[in-house]
Amino acid sequence: MNDKNNPPTAAIAATPETELFAVMCKALGHPARVMIIHYLKNIDRCLCGDIVKLLPLAQSTVSQHLKCLRDAGLIKGEVEGPRTCYCLDKAMLGKFTMMVDALGKSIAKQTGVHRK
């Protein structure tokens, strides 16, 4: 019987899916990265310079944020000559959405608190 006084004792191990979920969550852990995702969802694709114009950050800082999002699989970058054009990776964002939803449902089931 599992309750607050008797937590489960079985060890849990990270799976590739939980590792990916953690990487994606970490990538979205900075307001500038969330703003970049919001911007890219409203357009098809854009150049790094377009994003630099929107954020009050240096070009090198924006590039680091884009790299973090790209490394997490949330965006794609395509080199076009000396510039890189970015867009959302819709398949990965869909997977992330499903992971968030599954976690929310699991928490709701455990706590009895349901979303409205």
Low-confidence stretches at least 5 residues in length (pLDDT < 50)?
none
| CATH class value of the domain at 28-99 | Mainly Alpha
Query: What best-fitting shape do the alpha-carbon axes yield?
Result: elongated
Largest sheet: 3 strands, antiparallel
Distance between the termini: 29 Å
Would you write up a description of this structure?
Helix content is 57%, strand content 12%. Helix 3 (48-54) packs across helix 4. Strand 2 (75-80) and strand 3 (83-88) form a beta hairpin. The longest helix is centred in the C-terminal third of the chain and has 22 residues, at 90-111. The chain has a domain at 28-99: Arc Repressor Mutant, subunit A (Orthogonal Bundle), CATH 1.10.10. It has five helices and three strands; from the N terminus they run H-H-E-H-H-E-E-H. With 116 residues, it is α+β, with helices and mostly antiparallel strands. A three-stranded antiparallel sheet has the order 1-3-2. It starts with 15 loop residues before the first helix and ends in a 5-residue tail after the last helix.
Features:
116 residues, alpha+beta, Arc Repressor Mutant, subunit A, three-stranded antiparallel β-sheet, 5 helices, 57% helix
Describe how the helices and strands are arranged.
Elements: H1 16-27, H2 31-42, E1 46-47, H3 48-54, H4 59-71, E2 75-80, E3 83-88, H5 90-111
Antiparallel strand pairs: 1-3, 2-3
Helix pairs in contact: 3-4
In short:
The chain contains five helices and three strands; from the N terminus they run ααβααββα.
